[in-house]
Amino acid sequence: MAGRADSRLGAATLGQDACREHDPEHEHAFSWGEGARIAIVALAAVAVWFRLWEPLASVSVIGIAALVIGGWPIVSEAFENLLARRMTMELSMTLAIVAAAAIAQFFTALVITLFVLVAEVLEGMTVSRGRRAIRELLDFLPRAISVRRSNGIAEVVAEELEPGEAVLVNPGGRVPVDGTVIAGHSFVDQSRITGESLPVEKTPGSGVFAGSINQSGALEIRAERIGRDTSYGKIIEAVEQAERSRAPVQRLADRLAGYLVYFALGAALVTYLVTHDIRSTISVIIVAGACGIAAGTPLAILGAIGRAARGGAIVKGGLYLEQLGRVDTVVLDKTGTLTFGQPHVRALHPTAGVDPMVLLDAAAAAEARSEHPLGKTIAEYARAAGRVVREPERFGYQPGRGIDAVLSGAQILVGNLALLREHGIAVPDALASAQRGATEVYVARAGVLLGAIEIADRVRPEARAAVAAIQAMGARTVLLTGDAPAVAEAVAAQLGIAEVAAELLPEDKRDYVQRLTLERHVVAMVGDGINDAPALIEAQVGVAMGSGTDVARESADVVLLGNDLAKFAETLALARRTRRIIWTNFAGTIGVDALGIGLAAAGMLNPLLAAFIHVTSELTFILNSARLLPARRRNARRPG
Questions:
Q1: Global pTM?
Q2: Which of 17, 178, 254, 333 is catalytic?
Q3: Is 333 noted as a catalytic residue in this protein?
């Protein structure tokens, strides 16, 4: 009974091979036509039950008229499916209605019709709610855009906007383009795009994203990417594509629905041949139903994809959601995924008698002109600590070794062990053999060792909780990195990851993931860089951090908005919950059908009770899937 998606979202198919399809232009809460049809059938059922008007002894004129009016949508759908050689529940329900009417059980036929009509309305409302969750993405951007042009400020629609134009966004408004602030100062909520929980300050030169919300001051923005080319547009395209895809479990649901129809008709034939009881035979046809599977499965997938999108993870298709629900091994890249990917001064280790600030001042002065990332990190750290970074009188860089500079007539060396030993400066074993999982930069002045500066990448604060959540689900975690073993093991120890592979090239990461899949593991690979792309493609589910490279995002099946690994843990839990709900619906439908057919064949169910069991079980399974639909946002304002 599920329908096709809104035309703006593409021709999505939601269980159409097993259940009734609604016209995409009629995805509604409720229509007058449906209400009138239901009212007519309900009033006719009351009239027949109380025999209010029965001019003919064997035929109820009211019943027949109401069945024609109320049953027409069911019969016409059954006929269309029959012409298309599709075995659907509408066909079996049409047979049941006709059979009940043929034995003058008009009240039962009307009640069956009434149940089906009401069920279709309730189901349509539920499915439409799932599609609305995705359409909200489309409606989130403003329709009218203020643009500064030569003749003043003009209001235009998005299609009329050109790259390079100046867009004006007032406080409380939504940013319609990706671009750069050219005037104004404000704080912008860009949590939908980057996942950042706090508003971000924007000044001239700052980048902004379409779909973010301007919270305080007015901004003037130079449009750089418009419509589908924006970050928000890419999100919409990914979600649209996800809705159009069909997971293997969804195709299985369609096939099972067809098999159940054949089974019900076959059981009805056997019942009649054995019992010659037409009432039991009709009850068998009525009680069997598979729309709970055929509509509930795509509804669950649609709801989960919409919920994941709201939570900051774009799943590119039902196939990947289904695979994610089976993942038992999560492979994690280190740099940019578990860590910030930026060097950071972690500690100062001065030698005995040396003030830590003396060590820092000497190193910062030598690195003041350096372009090396470690050198810049030291200089920036010193400035942040309030130190005055002096310029050296002479500066020299030795590739692979470090800096040789002169300040106030004294030589300063900042680099690795090879540089200091080359100049005859001894480094104590305790300092030289430090295994802290970091890079040690040694500093000497005028031939005297001042100490070492420990530089390392910082672990993301949310990473430990995310890894713990993944492991709590029973998934195995593995850290893969091209970094040194000591660094990789230090990060793994902080996060509680037991399995580590270091010094890996991109092809090595790919081979590692391939080996895991050959061992029959279902692998999700999480990464952010170009070097992760081969492994992302090799894994059953590739997951890219939102801050990652374009190559990583294109190669991935799931894209996280921003850099919060917790979003992946939440999406993994959601995929598993979706899988459980779908399989609960499968088992429940088969169980109810088997029990109902058995009771009906034994003469323990009359057609009326069989219809009640069919419809209530179907709605139960659909509502079970509907639990995955995103909750409505409160106090949401329409875009201006």
A1: 0.68
A2: 333
A3: yes
